[in-house]
Amino acid sequence: MNDEPGYRWHKSTYSGETNGCLEIRTPPQRGRTRIRDSKDRFRPPLICTTESWMSFVRSVSAQEWPQGPAGR
């Protein structure tokens, strides 16, 4: 399940009780952020730099990307 002591996976509150969302592992490790699909937790996570992840989050928060079908 990709779990290691001292780390936690966090799921967006937008997903509610469903498993249709991404999960982020915290804290970041050596400048890397791990992202996984909440529907398939046994699949290896996507790993990117924490800097690139934060840049992506900022751009989505600023609505620089078109909204998808969910409208969020």
Automatic annotation (TrEMBL):
<dbReference type="InterPro" id="IPR007278">
    <property type="entry name" value="DUF397"/>
</dbReference>
<protein>
    <submittedName>
        <fullName>DUF397 domain-containing protein</fullName>
    </submittedName>
</protein>
<feature type="domain" description="DUF397">
    <location>
        <begin position="8"/>
        <end position="60"/>
    </location>
</feature>
<feature type="region of interest" description="Disordered">
    <location>
        <begin position="18"/>
        <end position="41"/>
    </location>
</feature>
<dbReference type="Pfam" id="PF04149">
    <property type="entry name" value="DUF397"/>
</dbReference>
